[in-house]
Amino acid sequence: MRRAMAAAEVGDDVFGEDPTINALQERAAGLMGQEAGLLTASGTMSNLIAALAWCSRGDEMIMGQEAHMFWNESAGPTALAGAQIRLVPNDVNGRISAQDVAAAVRDSSNIHVPATTLVCLENTHNRCSGGVMTPQDTREVVDVAHAAGAAVHLDGARIFNAAVALEVPASELTKDVDDVSFCLSKALSCPVGSVLCGSEEFIGKARKWRKMVGGGMRQAGVLAAAGLVALDSMVERLADDHANARRLAAGLANIDGLTVDEDGIQTNIVIFEVDREKVGDAREVIAALREDGVLVSHSRDQALRMVTHRHITAGDVDEALSRVNGTVRRMAGAA
Amino acid sequence: MEVSNGEEGMSMVVMGRYGVLYTKPRPKSAETSPRVIDMRSDTVTRPTEEMRVAMFEAEVGDDVFGEDPTVAELEKKAAELLGKEAGLFVASGTMGNLAAMMSHCWSRGEEVLAGDQSHVVLFEQGGAAQIGNFFLRTVRNLPDGTLDLEELRSKLQPEGKVAGDPHKTMTRLIVVENTHNMMGGRVIRPEYMDRLAELIRGLGIRIHVDGARLFNAATALGLPPAELVKHADSVTICLSKGLSAPAGSVLVGTAHFISRARRVRKSLGGGMRQVGVLAAPGIIALEKMSQRLEIDHNMAKFLGRGLVSMSDLGVDLDLEAVETNIVFFGLQRSDMTAEDFVARLEKEGVANGDRVIVKMLPARVASGEVKVRAVLNHHVTHQGVECALIRIREILANRGGRKRKQET
To answer: InterPro entries under this entry (chain A) (predicted)?
Structure first.
């Protein structure tokens, strides 16, 4: 990747003249079953652009109550795109149902009521342990959204994890939505960026919004070059991350004071609960683990999150489990 | 590694710390493609070989967790160079300006005053209003790029004065652009900034400098860049223009301001991860490429002198106004608009025996006239300017057009 970046042929992308970016965008669109693509600085930027493109001020967008767009994007879709967010339930795998979406759609012929112009999906689902939506699940929600006159945006930050887990081409999961974004910088391991894909018309508008929010980079082919390498060589190996996540979950389940839903571990994210009485407060556990050389993040309340990726081997998983066990036993002894 | 001011298509074996990185092949024949002399902007600059090696070797980490040492180094260096406490790498100057304005105008009911020909007003899609939700009012830009201070004085609405007035927004920020793009790459002098600072003293109003081309200004004046922005509360500088890094800008200000701007940047989608790969060439841009800008200024004057010699062909240019790397000229021709001229110039031609394509852009200026803009950058050499002048003369002379009669 570094070699590709250093040698990349570049041009000014604001003039549309960076050949490496153009190649990546075309390749990405093809993989997503869409017409065109747009390199963005981050998944957050892609999500914001989708909100800006599909929603007018005062519209309403529907998404799951655990959505990244709701929890972790500094209220951008609302504050900056001016649209209200309407939440529907996520199941344990992060899916939202067509029925719940249908029930949440608004009738804006009434002057009191905002129009529902966007439904947002997330696949895999971050806060729901990296759970997957199948092509069937996706199609059902898309049909309901389109019947209601709303577009569908897919936050596919980790869409390739879903595709690998389900053993389907990614396009099966993405071709029916109106736009989809996937991240290059996560498990695909590129330094920076995401690619937003949709129709030519949508991408034309998205390019303008991207410039407005400050995402119009110049010779960013240096970033796109890494993306092309990733699409070639970093997708199939995601299966290893999933295997390591299952290994991790199985080990955590055996540690007294921790609970994890092993069946819910479908990709590379493991969320587990720490018993407050037996062990301690989640934040203290995180700090103690850090001291013991295991870095994890906080999901919510007593839930902690671990994510596997190319720097974590099976051996690292076993080592981590051993250290976690030690930390938990120590804290349980002191609790 | 030498800083490359270089020609395209050279055979090069690039060595880094880890050995051979890559080779760039020389094209089979120098005649396979025409030479492109691209003066549309200094944003077209491609990274130097040294920058490419730096990208390859960059130490990186997740910058959203604050763990990328290279971008941290860039931000610190930029802040020090500009005499401010802290810095923030951003994807573009537009993002830097927007994040700055949003961070200054933190409360509802605040406004920004900026020049009517400034980039934030003309070329940022009104992000201030659309995204930032604050008012952006204009003050006339004078030909020298400054804001008309008398008009500014009359338009100021300091909070102390208007807080009780339900009709008026509260002026929180003034944006000064240095160098000023649309007024011709004009340099804003420290003496002007002193007068501006005096005008707003004690009124709770701050200054943001859009210093996309600040280093051009510093070079032209022979002053350290910090001197030009000592009254500014925040500054955006672009790494991707004349400084030639592939992408990005840096916003600098107080530590408190930057921590706020970091939040705003994340909400705009500018939170990038292993962005050290962009910061590494950025450091070279800041430290080395900032030292070569005088060459671009000399090339601009060389171009300007050549254009002035074509005034009999309808070229209208004030050479005194060429202070940095930007040249605007008018075409007083009845047979050809600026757009026609630029289109014709972009067609392949021959100069000094070489096939060349010369690129510039038409630009509508304050008076409504459409002029031609040329921006010098490290890819445009003395020879390149010579060829451009030959092509320009050829096009203007060919049509046999007369100078348009001056309207009275």
So the answer is: ArAA_b-elim_lyase/Thr_aldolase, Low_specificity_L-TA-like, PyrdxlP-dep_Trfase, PyrdxlP-dep_Trfase_major, PyrdxlP-dep_Trfase_small
Query: Is B131 within 8 Å of A14 when comparing Cβ atoms?
Result: no
Of A7, A212, A214, the CB nearest to B90: A214
Distance between CA atoms of A267 and A326, rounded to whole angstroms? 26
* Bond prior to B179 in cis (omega within 30° of 0): yes
- Closest residue in chain A to residue B56, using alpha carbons only: A2
Whether ipTM tops 0.85, in short, is yes
| Mutation choice for B interface testing from A68, A219, A298 by most B CBs within 10 A | A219
CA distance B150 to chain A (A): 31
C-alpha count within 13 angstroms, C-beta hemisphere, residue A50 = 35
A80 touches chain B (CB under 8 A): yes
Q: Which amino acid is at A146?
A: H
Q: Which of A 184-243 lie inside 8 A of B, CB atoms?
A: 185, 190-193, 208, 211-223, 226
Q: Establish if B149 touches chain A: CB-CB under 8 angstroms.
A: no
Give φ, ψ of A112 to 5 degrees. -75, -15
CA distance A197 to A49: 11
Task: Give the C-alpha separation, B98 to B96, whole Å.
Answer: 6
Chain B residues close to A190, C-beta within 8 Å: 274
Strand partners, B234: B208, B253
Domains of chain B with bracketed CATH: 2-47+292-397 (3.90.1150.10), 49-289 (3.40.640.10)
Residue of A nearest to B60 (CA): A191
For chain B, 408 residues long, give each residue's pLDDT as a single digit of tens. 333 333 444 455 666 665 666 666 555 555 579 999 999 999 999 999 999 999 999 999 999 999 999 999 999 999 999 999 999 999 999 999 999 999 999 999 999 999 999 999 999 999 999 999 999 999 999 999 999 999 999 999 999 999 999 999 999 999 999 999 999 999 999 999 999 999 999 999 999 999 999 999 999 999 999 999 999 999 999 999 999 999 999 999 999 999 999 999 999 999 999 999 999 999 999 999 999 999 999 999 999 999 999 999 999 999 999 999 999 999 999 999 999 999 999 999 999 999 999 999 999 999 999 999 999 999 999 999 999 999 999 999 985 444 554 444
Rounded to a whole number of angstroms, the distance between the first and last alpha carbons of chain B is: 58
